[in-house]
Amino acid sequence: MVSSEAVPYAKAGGLGDVVSALSKELKNRDHDVRIVIPRYYSIDPSNFESLDTPLGVPMGFGELWAKIYRSTLPGSQVPFFFIDHEVLFGRDGIYAPGTSGGYPDNAKRFTMLCRGAFQLCKTLNWVPDIIHSHDWPAALTPVYLYTWERDGLFSKTAGVFTIHNLGHQGIFPKGDIHYTQLNWEHYYTSGFEFHDKVNFLQAGLKNADLITTVSPTYAEEIQTAEQGFQMDGLLRRRSGDLFGVLNGIDYHHWDPESDPHIAIN
Questions:
Q1: Domain that holds residue 179
Q2: Model pTM?
């Protein structure tokens, strides 16, 4: 699971809930599931284990280095990893300070998350059957599966991309594509091109093997011009690979027999 959010460590909306709850349930069904997110300022690493090997992430015209922390998702046996890079992730907000617009370097920040996810797998000597990425901050992972990583360790890995909110797409200046180490050919062929800008979510939608979203109804709605946020044509073309899976809940956490937040259990 590659995500910008996962409870209880980072949450701005329903995305954070789904990533953790889904991972727990898959683990309960004997799948080997691991989660990676950035280590923001709000996440205290003092009780985490740190990996001995620093993580080198190829980006832009060189390489960035990060520290990796490891923990376990509370209430489960799901390994949880944090990419710690002070300059990019050592900030108060996940996407932006307060209620302002996004950080101007968000393209660089979340490129590091996506490319770093592959580098982390290599460090762990662990190659997943599926890389499941969530919303625009993780949308480059299926792109990398069919570019930089296609002929290596991940040649048999599939990419699943989940849309939680189609309205947020990760649209940046055209020149920001250099952070990805992809060239102008990829700008046109890998789905980035969007009104002379780069669109991370659009590239993810084009490259993922399968696309899921939060309900069967939403899967239909986002294929319409009214609610497709200019992605409806692409989603209609990929309708055979698009599945609406109704979001579930954590039945242990939200158990009315033991929930401390209701007056009478």
A1: 14-33+106-244
A2: 0.95
